Amino acid sequence: MAAIRCPHCGSPVKIRGSRRECGYCGDFGSISSLHPSEKAKLMQAATPSVQVTVTVTDTSEEEPPRRFSRAEPEDMVRRWDFDENEWACRDLLIAAFPQAASRWSEEELAEMHTMDLLVETGRRDPQTALEMAKLLLNTAEEHLQNEEAANQLLGWDLYDLLASDDMLPLPVEELKWDDRLARQLFQSAYVDRPQEAILNACGRLGEKELQRKLLELLDCNPFPHDTIGY
């Protein structure tokens, strides 16, 4: 507050309630005896002030996409719950196989579907692509009897990879000893081109015993499916 001046000598005065007192000349009295300009100072000082602070948030840049640890998408795939991340299958593969995923930039990976990542990896490193496929099947194993989940995995994500002529010798060799993989593929709720391609590959590669074993599994499959030619 600006100094209030004594009407007698002009020195600053002290204000005590409704009275004034000059420490220099000793003059005192009611504040009503102050000069009009000094009264105006008092009135201005007594007027309440409001300070407003406005915070402006810059929304011109989009928030970066949330990053997930391997455990998070793995849990989502295991529960088959993609409410938090619709790309959990792809993100699980990226987290579990960082060396394979390092072939592409983050921007390129963000544009890929799970199927794209598997197929592109299969062209460069078929063995790693097969391990990726097995990870998805093992993680979602409890849901392979569910038509929606089986269609998504075998009828979409893994479809092109498992039906690729260049890729087929690897799963055929794997199926000779991996009974778990055999059950996942031939006793799931989805049977179509991938299983047919594997059976045909068994015939071409002379794996008749394996072919018979897989057909037996298929015959025990409780889900309706078209007859497979081989």
The neighbouring-strand order within the major sheet is 1-2-3
Distance between the termini: 98 Å
Rg calc: 39 Å
Low-confidence stretches: none
Number of helices: 13
Shape: rod-shaped
Helix proportion:
40-55%
Order of helices and strands: EEEHHHHHHHHHHHHH
Oligomeric status: single chain
How is this structure best described in words?
- Helix content is 51%, strand content 5%.
- The protein has 13 helices and three strands; from the N terminus they run βββααααααααααααα.
- The protein has two domains: 13-45, no CATH class; 71-219, no CATH class.
- With 230 residues, it is mainly alpha-helical.
- A hairpin with a 2-residue loop joins strand 1 and strand 2.
Question: Which terms summarize this structure?
Answer:
single chain, mainly alpha, 2 domains, 13 helices, rod-shaped
Summarize the structure.
By secondary structure, this protein is mostly helical.
Reconstruct the topology from this structure.
Elements: E1 13-16, E2 19-22, E3 28-30, H1 36-46, H2 71-79, H3 88-96, H4 98-101, H5 106-111, H6 114-124, H7 126-139, H8 147-157, H9 159-162, H10 169-175, H11 179-186, H12 193-204, H13 208-219
Antiparallel strand pairs: 1-2, 2-3
Helix pairs in contact: 2-3, 6-7, 12-13
